[in-house]
What we know:
Radius of gyration: 23 Å
Distance between the termini: 59 Å
Helix content: 25-40%
Shape: globular
Largest sheet: 5 strands, mixed
Strand order of the largest sheet: 4-5-6-9-10
Amino acid sequence: GGPDSAEDGRRFWIRNYGDGGEGGGGGGKRFKRPYPFAAVYVPRMSASERSDRRERMSRIYRDESRAMMARMHWGNAHEATAVLTALNYFWRKEPGVTIEEVGMCGAGLEMNATDGDGLIVGASPDAVIRHTNGTLEALEVKNHCPFVPNSWGRNGSWSRRKKGGGNRNHVFRIRELPIQPEVPPAYIPQLMMEMLTLGPQCRSAVMVRQTATTGAVILRLHRDDEWIEEMMHWLGRFHSDFVLEGVPPPRGVFF
């Protein structure tokens, strides 16, 4: 049921209110009953809109100097898709779970209740998972772009590929790498800060690492209060030694 679906015999018909793409006629997709997910993403882009976007993107990304911009745009554009992956996964395991949009968190922390020059912290998870038992988890999603510059060697170095490849005249190529089922160390401070700012009742964070070609992994990182205390110590040192003093930190500070 609902405005975007209708029963049709033994199947569900998911309507697309755009022009249906190249073929026109009101696009959509049929799914066998029962529909296995909590929600479905239905793009509402006409063929002319899609053509216009492709033309604009070809102008923006026509040279490799904007390679990282393209990869960042990919991650931003597909953030909602990864949130949908989390919703469908947890809803299948726990009907009634909700994924809630959230802004900047941390206003209620005691350390932020200051009128002076003290350290103020905050974090903005991509969403919050609210389980049926009242448990809260921070949700962070990362979308790994499948496109790399054509000059990016297969060993990760920036070296011109050998001639003879079928796509040697293209700016980008697709690089398929297996997704690793682990939280990259660089993201652990981010997840710990998100758990801190959501309050003491938040004891874990979920990370979705999603790709276009090799699926997704859903990972859970448990809160470590000793780790958070150490993190806050060094943030406080940086704030007092450099921010309040108005001096730039030296290279390799604290190492």
